[in-house]
Automatic annotation (TrEMBL):
Name of the protein: UDP-glycosyltransferase 86A1
Gene3D superfamilies attached to this UniProt entry: Glycogen Phosphorylase B
GO molecular-function terms, A-Z: quercetin 3-O-glucosyltransferase activity; quercetin 7-O-glucosyltransferase activity
Lineage top rank: taxon: Eukaryota
Similarity remark: Belongs to the UDP-glycosyltransferase family.
Length: 158
């Protein structure tokens, strides 16, 4: 039985890119991974890739899966419609990420556990900017792993 992790990054490119790399690295070490992206971030990435390809939905892990890695990619809503201007309303958006988004994550993990063997799921890997990840991990008896995506010096001075 291989270890199984859920990966959830903050929906900004500076955070998501390192999560993508760690996801592929863990999968290459025989982990099963579900990478969870916020619907809006996925929509923006797909939209930017549609300008250069004929694909409607971009999946960053399609080549990794083709090579045999066990990576699932899914999206969950964060409570705002796609048209909501997250840049203009950054404070409201970030408050939602911190206080409302956790219920979406909780529901997603609960459904994932219900639909599969709960003993398979082992880890919740989340950005430490999410203060709620340890609470959700504890609820589902998962190991909570904080993956810091910034420079080490920022972690040292915080």
């Amino acid at each position: 039985m291989k270890p199984y992790a859920i990966m959830i990054s903050v929906p900004f490119q500076r955070h998501a890119n390192p999560f993508v790399h760690v996801t592929i690295k863990l999968a290459s070490k025989s982990f099963a991974i579900t990478f969870v992206h916020i619907e809006y971030a996925h929509h923006r990435i797909s939209k930017s890739h549609n300008n250069t390809s004929c694909s409607n939905e971009f999946d960053v892990f399609s080549e990794a899966r083709d090579s045999g890695l066990d990576i699932r990619y899914t999206t969950i809503a964060n409570g705002f419609p796609l048209e909501f201007d997250r840049v203009q309303n950054l404070n409201e958006y970030w408050e939602s990420i911190l206080h409302e988004f956790p219920s979406h994550v909780d529901e997603f993990i609960g459904n994932l556990i219900e639909s599969s063997d709960p003993s398979l799921l082992s880890f919740l890997v989340a950005d430490p900017l999410y203060p709620w990840s340890s609470t959700i991990a504890k609820k589902y008896k998962l190991v909570n792993v904080a993956f810091w995506t910034g420079p080490a010096v920022l972690l040292a001075i915080s």
